[in-house]
């Protein structure tokens, strides 16, 4: 159960392609209610969405971490915005447990804005400055340098359960849209103790 929940944490950082990309989405918002397998989410971009959870759906808790946990050799993911000079400015960092090393490795576009990216890889060089860190993130086939300001949220993951899907809890639901337009999900990430998952 713990491994499956953490595996979902990795899937948050993957971008599907082809027909899968047309039917899958990350739904971000707050829990309105949970009744059996029926999860209602008030989306950040407006409106309530109803998602039918698989009876065996996994719940992953997103918990706070710190930049002190990000060291050379750490396997991380980081969402970032591409700056006008082509550099990457992190908007969040998530630290993967060792059991998930390699998950979603690579660099790709992300869905947090037109210039957003997601980079999953191993931290190489780390330069610590007065205003933040500069990290070299290495992945198969390349590497990126990401500037991480001191105020950027850093999180990690642990196994959760449905008792954490209470009204007002911040969630990311990895959902699929069926031919009938209905949403279903096998995986939900929830911010623990009021935390908003930043990715």
Looking at this protein, list some descriptive labels.
199 residues, mainly beta, single chain, 12 strands, 12-stranded mixed beta sheet
Descriptive report:
By secondary structure, this protein is mainly beta. It is built from two helices and twelve strands. The two termini are 22 Å apart. The model is unreliable at 1-8 and 13-22 (pLDDT under 50).
Helical residues, percent = under 10%
Percent strand = over 45%
Average pLDDT across residues? 89
Which oligomeric form is depicted?
single chain
| Estimated radius of gyration | 17 Å
- Given as residue ranges, the uncertain stretches (5+ residues, pLDDT < 50) are 1-8, 13-22
- Give the topology string: H per helix, E per strand: HHEEEEEEEEEEEE
Number of helices: 2
Instruction: State the end-to-end CA separation.
Output: 22 Å
Q: How would you summarize this macromolecular structure in one to three sentences?
A:
The chain has helices spanning about 1-10, 20-25; strands at about 25-35, 40-45, 50-65, 75-80, 90-95, 105-110, 115-130, 130-140, 140-150, 155-160, 170-175, 185-190. With about 200 residues, it is mostly beta strands. Strands 1, 2, 3, 4, 5, 6, 7, 8, 9, 10, 11 and 12 form a twelve-stranded mixed β-sheet that branches.
């Amino acid at each position: 159960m713990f491994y499956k929940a953490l595996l979902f944490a990795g899937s948050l950082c993957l971008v599907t392609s082809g027909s899968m990309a047309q039917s899958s989405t990350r739904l971000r918002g707050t829990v309105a209610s949970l009744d059996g397998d029926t999860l209602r989410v008030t989306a950040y971009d407006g409106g309530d969405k109803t998602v039918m959870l698989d009876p065996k759906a996994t719940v992953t808790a997103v918990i706070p971490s710190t930049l002190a946990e990000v060291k050379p050799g750490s396997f991380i993911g980081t969402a970032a915005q591409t700056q006008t000079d082509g550099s990457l400015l992190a908007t969040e960092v998530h630290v993967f447990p060792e059991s998930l090393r390699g998950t979603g490795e690579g660099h790709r576009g992300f869905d947090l804005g037109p210039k957003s990216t997601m980079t999953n890889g191993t931290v190489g060089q780390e330069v610590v400055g007065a205003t933040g860190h500069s990290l070299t993130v290495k992945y198969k086939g390349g590497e990126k340098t990401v500037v991480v300001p001191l105020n950027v949220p850093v999180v990690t993951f642990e196994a959760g359960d449905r008792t954490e899907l209470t009204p007002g809890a911040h969630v990311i639901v990895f959902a699929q849209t069926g031919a009938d337009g209905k949403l279903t999900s096998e995986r939900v990430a929830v911010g623990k103790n009021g935390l908003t998952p930043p990715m």
